[in-house]
Amino acid sequence: MTTILVTGATGGLGRPTVERLRAAGHDVRALSRHAGGGRQAGEGRVVADLATGAGLEDALTGVETVLHLATTRKSDAAQTLTLLDAARTAGVSHIVYISIVGVDRIPFAYYRDKAECERLVAESGIPFTILRATQFHGFVADLFLATRRLPFLVTLPVSDQPIAVEEVADRLAELAETGPSGRVPDIGGPEILTLDELAAQWQRAHGSHKRVWRVSIPGKTMKAFRAGHHLAGLPGYGRGTFAEYAAHRARDTNEA
C-alpha cells in the first residue's frame, strides 16, 4: 500500500481521483486549505496551504507519491515550487502532475504558467510523471452556461476534444501505481468536434433551440486554438462522449 498525497483533492478532478486511489487500496491524504466547510474529501483529509507552505511538512510526512492536481489560475508556478521544495525535503519519490494539451504551443497566460509548472517538476530532482489532458466535458458546458440567460449561445470558430473527468482520474490513478514515467502521451476524448457541433449536442439534450452566434477573436492565442494545438488527436483515450455528458446533465437538471 502506497501513501499518496493529492493536492486539489476536493476539486472536480481531485474527488474521483481520490476515490479511485482509495478503491485500489492506497492510503490517500486529501489536501485542502480548509479544515471544514464545502464538499468534504472524506477520511484522510489534511490541511495545508500551498501559497505559504504552512502545514506541508506534516502533510508530506511518510508520503511516497504526490498527485499535484491543484490549480489557482493565478499562481500555479509559485505554489508548485513551494510544494516541490517541501516534497524534496520530505523524501517524496514520485510526483504526478496534471497539465493541459498545448501549454507549450498556445500563448495564453494560464497555459504559460502550466508550462512553467511542468518545467519545475521536470527539473525538481524528484522522479516525476507529467500527463497532459484536453479540456473536460464540464469546461465546454460552462462555455454554454455562461450565456444561458441570453437568447443565443456564443461559440468560437475552433474545435475541441473534450474528455470525461472520470477517465482522466482513471489514468492518473494508473500512473500513480506505474511509477515515474516522465512525460507520458497526451490524452483526449473520443471525438474532435467544432464548438458549433458541441453546442448543437448541448441544445438537443436540453431541448433548447437558441441561435448560435460564432465570435471571431483576433490574436496569437486564438490562432493557436484554431490550429488545433490544444487537441491530442484521434483515436482518443476517453470513451465517454460530450453528447452523453450533456444528456446526463439535462437529466440531473430535470430531476433537481
Descriptive report:
With 256 residues, the protein is α/β, with parallel strands linked by helices. It contains nine helices and eleven strands. The strands form three sheets. Strands 3-2-1-4-5-6-9 form a seven-stranded parallel sheet, sandwiched between helices. This is NAD(P)H-binding protein. Keywords: NADP.
List keywords for this structure.
Rossmann fold; 9 helices; 7-stranded parallel sheet; alpha/beta
SSE inventory with pairings:
Blueprint: E1 3-7, H1 14-23, E2 27-32, E3 45-47, H2 56-60, E4 65-68, H3 76-90, E5 94-100, H4 109-122, E6 128-133, H5 137-145, E7 152-155, E8 159-160, H6 165-178, E9 182-183, E10 193-194, H7 195-206, E11 211-214, H8 220-226, H9 242-255
Helix pairs in contact: 1-6, 3-4, 7-9
InterPro entries: NAD(P)-bd_dom, NAD(P)-bd_dom_sf, NmrA-like_oxidored
Keywords: NADP
Protein name: NAD(P)H-binding protein
